[in-house]
Amino acid sequence: MDLRGYLKVLARRWPTVLVCLLLGIGAGQAANELIRPVYEARTQLFVATRSGVDTAELNQGQSFSQARVQSYAAIVATRQVTEPVVRELGLPTTPEQLASKISANVPLNTVLINITVRDASPSRAARIANAVAVRFSAVVEQLETPKQAAEPAPAPSPAGPAPEAAAPPAAVSPVSLGITQQATAPSVPVSPRHLLNLAAGLLAGLLLGAALVILRETLDTTLKTSEALSELTRLPVLGSIPFDKDAAKQPLATGAAKHSTRAEAFRKLRTNLQFAQVDDRPRVIVVTSPVPGEGKTNTAANLALSLAEAGIVTCLVDADLRRPSVARTFGLVQNAGLTTVLIGQARIEDVMQQAGSRLSVLTSGAVPPNPTELLSSDRMGEVLRELAGRYEAVIVDTAPLLPVADTVGLAPLAQGALLVVRASKTGRDQVRSAAEALSRVGVRTLGTVFSMAPLNKGKGYGAYGSYGDLPAPRPSGRRKEAAEPALTHLAGDK
Description:
This is non-specific protein-tyrosine kinase. One of its GO terms (cellular component) is plasma membrane. It is found in: Cell inner membrane. Its EC number is 2.7.10.2. By secondary structure, this protein is an alpha/beta fold. It contains 18 helices and 12 strands. 43% of the residues lie in helices and 15% in strands. Helix 17 (428-440) links the parallel strand 11 (416-422) and strand 12. Helix 4 (79-89) crosses helix 6 (122-144) and helix 9 (261-276) crosses helix 10 (296-309). It starts with a helix and ends in a 7-residue tail after the last helix.
């Protein structure tokens, strides 16, 4: 999947990304509320050498200070500095704990030492920083003070006591540290950093949302687009039926729904089916699906209606003898139908029911105990041939392919099959297995139907909007008569 594909996935699953963004912002705000504020106080010291006014001595002292100032900075957090500061200020902490709050750095090519102290109290941070600076200066000067060697006492003279020797001069540190900037109580904490935490939470939420979406997309093997279905099956997608929340209550695209987007999709399916097999037009078409709940019965019923509306004399057969639903869809009688004919209790014309001027429906009849044997029997083949002789198009609704073997036995008796796949529900392995099952028994699969697909809003027909927005056309007998010859080629010459 390329970058464009990932962006499409993120756009399609934007609620997940939005929730993760809100969670990330919430986590950032919670961090701002829960983290205890920390204040930072700073003081600065200048390291100088004790020398005369001679320029050469000043240069030597400067080089000496710069050479040793890095070592001085490492002494700031030692126990020699922190222990006296803890006693002096009466701090409720140990010297080691205080050392963890102190840091020092030396700007490049300078003899300055910056001391930083962090504490939960701004005033206490300033007091600690100033006390550390004073104590640190004393420790450094003490360490740099040279130690004098003890001189031997003079021997007594026979002439008398020797005169008292003069006391040697006191040793002095060659460096001195002066405080150039006293620490003051800060007014703003350095932690938590509210904007940074919110930005970090926002970024973390975005990354989490993107990761979840990509992971879900990777683990989700269902088909989201008709292009993906065509690429998987290597079969043409003859129709993409949009999802309609009212389809459960009104499965047939008739009446007020006759001019909806969904009804137009079935008309497009009819047209594509006609042009898909121009050289060898099938008369008996099986409509099936990999698993239940993919809209195969709905597709079969509306395809039959669409063919009848185009002037093609059509017969719809309910051959799903496990869960028949065509009779309920059309409001017809189910008890007498296909199974009645197969067992020889009635003729086709005795149980055929009308659902329109050009649409006849052969319902399932009573549910038998052996549907697989009945549907693959020679008698079933005779019934289909008899229907093909009476009607221009025969649409057969059958059971799903994968759960039962009914359709595998029935499909070879037909002249073609349509495979209905539900968007975002049917797995790739299921679709592949269903297509292979039809291929193994030599069924001619005409194409696939992508059902319950998401409706692409804003992609209407030019400036006129979507087909569903068009007004209902006025009936015209002359126009209908002119259209019938062009549409009846599905059946071929009788």
